Structures are given as structure tokens and as C-alpha cells.
Amino acid sequence: MDTNLYSGEKKSILYVLGLYLSSTLLLIATLFTSYYFYEKDQLMHDEKETLKKYALKIEDKLSALHEVNNHDYKYPRFNNFKSAIYDIDKNLIFSTFDDDIEELENKFFIKDSKSYLITSLSPYYMGAAYIVVQKETKNLDILNALIYLAIIVVLITIITSFFLVNLVLKPIRENIKLLDNFIKDTTHELNTPITAILTNIETLDSTNCDEKTLRKLDRIKIASMGISNIYQDLVYLLLNHKTSTQNIDLNLSQILVQRVNYFANMANMKKIKFVLKIKEDVHFIADKQKMERLIDNILSNAIKYTRKSTAITVTLNESMLSIEDEGKGMSKEEIEKIFTRYLRFDKSQGGFGIGYSIIKSIIDEYNIKIDIKSKQNKGTKVTLTW
Is the pTM of this model over 0.70? Predict the structure, then answer.
């Protein structure tokens, strides 16, 4: 077991981080977009006001020409804008535009990077009822700057987010490390007494014991086996990432029978019978210790959660292993969370909630598919296929 965060915790952290980043980015995008359109509207307002001033210049010039009673008129021209005049029927009188205007409905509009303003003229100087002024539209140069600024803000936000996450996770990692060290120390201390108990029980001469003493010895042996099974799981979690995997050709049939026999006394205490449908000489290439842990955890869970005086059916063929009990069963929600480490659904039963976490790590390593079907108060069937 390492001191890193477990997959469920990592997912939660990534979810929170993603939510924080997405909300921050959405806020940034909203602010920048609002600012961009504000500047655009401000630019349009400035363009319109400028064109109004140009229109007044044309009107003044036309008024002056109108008062001069001369048939030789020279239409006013300006360097910074162009203009055109139309009669009351919106027919063109004169224009300095490069292109014609198709319609005179909008008082202000932009077309082809040019701004246009149409104003009414009264009285009709030189027969003109409408003045149209045109100028090159000023470019809104803030878009690129906003994009660069947004990129910088996003990068700063991402860096800050990871800094904050690491700051929040620091005490969690320290607590996990303390927990790991505690489990390591506890596991190390359990090794000697467990081994001594099991060894001494096996060497006891039970021939001279009465039935009551034999029952006591069986209970001690079963309890010791339970502790030993937990111990083996803890050792696997602690040392699995540090030990090399030794994949060999295993006779899975023999191993399965051995593990069933190992749990026989524990099953007998609850009057549980094993129904074995094990095909002989089924082989599988894997690490022996890992396959034993895989089988032991499924079997021990079946015994632990099944009812008294029922049966556990163990089936094995070339591509499938299934273990079916007649226990309390699980809900759909429990099945979805079953691989979460340290999660226990029934606090009245012993254990640390690490069994299915170990099962998950092993089946993932060997590309074994698992299917768990369960009905509450009916039983559970765990099927492994490869």
C-alpha cells in the first residue's frame, strides 16, 4: 500500500478541481466577453458622433453653396471622410463614394469596414433631402490583447489551483502516511503470534481430547484462520508493489480445492456445505500468491455473508470460475461501490473492507472480467472469466 491517494479520493479531488477551474474559466470568459462588447459598443458610439460632426460640415457647405446664386457649383470634399446627397425620393444627386449605397433605411450602419450615417436635411439645400457621410471604421484592437491576457490568467489560475489542492491535500497525505505506518507496524507485530497459534494448533494431539475440547480447538483454529486471512490481505496491500510478480503455469483446479479445504472448518461452523463443480487440470498462468488471495477473498466473503445451513457452489472450467452463495445479497448501489477500499456495508461483520479492492487489483492485472449478480435475501454469484 502506498501513501498516495486512493482512486476514489483522486476522482473526488479531480472533480472539485475541474469544477473550480471550469467555473473560474467561465467567469473569466464572461468578464472578457462583456468587456469586449462594451468596447465595441463604445467604438460604435464614437464613430456615430464623429460622423454627425462630418454631416454638419457638409450641411454648412451646402447651405453656403445654396446661398450663392451661381450655376457653377463645386461639391465639397474632405480628406478624412466622403459624402453623398439624395433628393426627397432618395435618388442620388451627387456622391464621392467609391461604391453605391443600395438602401437608405438605416440611419447608422457598417459595411465593408466603413461606417455610414444618414441624416435628414431641412431645408433642402441644393435639392438634397438626405446627407450620407462615410469614413473608414476604426479597428477594435483589443481582441488579441484580451486573448493573450485570458491565456495568462488561465495559466495563473491553473497553477494556483494545483498549489491550493496540494496545500489542502498535505494533511490528508500525512494522515494516510501515518495510517500506512500504523498498519505496517501492526501487521509486523501480528506475524509472530499468528504463526505461533496456527503452528501449535496443528501440532496438538486431539485424540485424547473430549468433544467439548475439540469444539473449542476448532473455534480457536477458525478464529486464527480469520486473523491469518486478514494478515495475508494486509501483507499483500503493503508489499505487493515492492515484490516481483512470478507468473507460472498454475493448476488452478488443485489450488481451488486446497483453498476450499482451507476454509472447510470455517464453513462447518455455520453448517455450510461446498458444492464443487471443479473440472480437473484447468491451468492458468499467474502469480500463485495473487491467485490464492483472489480465491480466498471471494470464498471468505461468501462464507461470512451467507446464512447458516446453506450451500456455496464453486464452479470451474477452462475459462470461468464462479462462486455462488445463498446469503443476504447486495443492492445495486452496494455492487457499484464494492471495489472501494475500506468501505464496509455490514459493520457487524469483521474485516477492513479491503477484500474486493484486492480482487479488483488482481483481475485488472490479469485481464480477468468479473460479473457480480446479487439479490437481497437470495444470495450472490461472483463470476470470473478470462
Answer: no
